[in-house]
Design brief:
The chain is α+β, with helices and mostly antiparallel strands and 228 residues long. It folds into two domains: 154 residues, no CATH class; 55 residues, Arc Repressor Mutant, subunit A, CATH 1.10.10. 20% of the residues lie in helices and 37% in strands. The chain is built from five helices and nine strands; from the N terminus they run H-E-E-E-H-E-E-H-E-E-H-H-E-E. The strands form two sheets. Strands 1, 2, 3, 4, 5, 6 and 7 form a seven-stranded mixed β-sheet that branches. It has a two-stranded antiparallel sheet with strand order 8-9. Strand 2 and strand 3 form a beta hairpin. Helix 4 crosses helix 5. The termini are far apart.
Length: 228
């Protein structure tokens, strides 16, 4: 019996499975043992594929091990549109609705929050997959209280819009809408980027850890940043 570290496929969502096969591509393979881990996929050219729908924190050890022997591509799907379908325990659909939340490329910093060093590892590419998804839920009384006991059963890929490649640290400069010598704060960054303040805070935290920006002082209680 294998003791290799893997989450396995028992709880794998349809979204994860679809992207895994899509990115492994023709001639590639999936669920391949590599060292002490299992890769979601290996492309025909040898590049390792990891599909991660949540935080990148759990990937840190795996990606470092893979990057020591080859190139790694982390695929992170972000839902532009999410359709929620709720079913009864007997399988009958109760209702269907569109979520008011729409994802943007800025959501990549939700995933990078606990692993901002990953983009600095040589040979690691992060690819944002902008998609539409269908989230299937079951009214079984076992889900989180905020969903009133409704459980998430599966997530399916319904449309693929575009991919955004972040192969080198400099590719993240797209998230800094200021000139090299301009100073900015969380508030001014959020305003210029057209995003929420909390999202700007996460982005600037990660960009600071990546060495792309630095703190140069304070304006009142707010940190002042400038491009490194």
């Amino acid at each position: 019996m294998s003791t290799r570290k893997t989450i396995g496929t028992n709880n794998e969502s349809s979204l994860h499975r679809a992207l895994k096969f899509q990115y492994a591509g023709p001639g590639g393979k999936t669920e391949a043992e590599v060292g002490s881990f299992v890769a979601d996929g290996i492309r025909k050219d040898g590049e390792y594929i990891e599909v991660q729908t949540g935080s990148f924190g759990p990937l840190k050890k795996k990606v470092k091990e893979f990057a020591a022997i080859g190139k790694v591509r982390i695929i992170h799907p972000i839902a532009v549109t999410k359709t929620i379908e709720v079913y009864a325990k007997d399988g009958k659909q109760l209702y269907r609705r569109k979520s008011p939340v729409h994802g943007t490329p800025w959501n990549i910093f939700d995933a990078l929050l606990y692993a901002p060093e990953l983009p600095l590892i040589r040979g690691v590419t992060i690819e944002i997959a902008m998609v539409d998804i269908i989230e299937k839920r079951v009214k079984d009384g076992k889900g989180a209280w905020r969903r009133k006991g409704i459980s998430i059963r599966d997530k399916e890929l319904s449309a693929f819009h575009e991919s955004i490649l972040l192969g080198k640290p400099k590719d993240y400069l797209r998230f800094i809408p200021f000139k090299k010598t301009e100073e900015f704060t969380v508030s001014s960054h959020a305003e210029k980027a057209g995003i929420k303040k909390w999202m700007s805070q996460r982005a600037l935290y990660a960009l600071t850890k990546m060495g792309l920006i630095k703190k140069v002082g304070k304006k009142g209680n707010a940190w002042v940043y400038v491009c490194s």
